[in-house]
Amino acid sequence: MIATAFAVAALLQPESFEASAGAFAACLRATVQMGMTTRMEPEQFRAGLARACLDEQARFRAAAIAAAISQGRSEAEAAAEVDGNIANGRRIFAADQESYVRTGRVPR
User: Fold this and answer.
1) What Rg, from alpha-carbon coordinates, does the chain have?
2) How many CA atoms lie within 13 A of 35 on its CB side?
3) 62-98 as b/e, with b when 16 or more CB fall inside 10 Å?
4) Model's pTM, two decimal places?
């Protein structure tokens, strides 16, 4: 019971959110870099990206939902917002890789 309380308290700390967000973004960046380096076809890359960084995503999702709840959102609102942000982020990373494969220019 005490361990659970400490785990919940850790999730509510801004460092937990920042660390999990950084780890998730770093994993996605590394995946995109691999897709650029190998010039992987965009469809194939999107399929691989969907399976990449799932542990980092789960930690980020938990921390982001906890942070949103601590700011007054309901759990359902927080989950919907975070899930939307994750989906949008993954679309952006996939678009970056596709743009590079098409144009040869490294996205910013």
Assistant:
1) 16
2) 29
3) bbbbbbbbeeebeeeebbeebeeebeebbeebbebbb
4) 0.81
CA dihedral 55→27→50→87, nearest 10 degrees, is 90
pLDDT one-digit tens code per residue, 1-27:
444 444 454 545 556 999 999 999 999
3-state class (DSSP) for residue 105: coil
Q: How many CB atoms lie within 10 A of CB 41?
A: 13
Please give the Cα distance from 80 to 41 (Å, whole number).
31
Encoded amino acid at 36, one letter: M
Any idea what DSSP says for residue 8?
H
Comparing C-alpha atoms, which of 103, 90, 105 is closest to residue 45? 90
Domain boundaries, the chain: 2-103
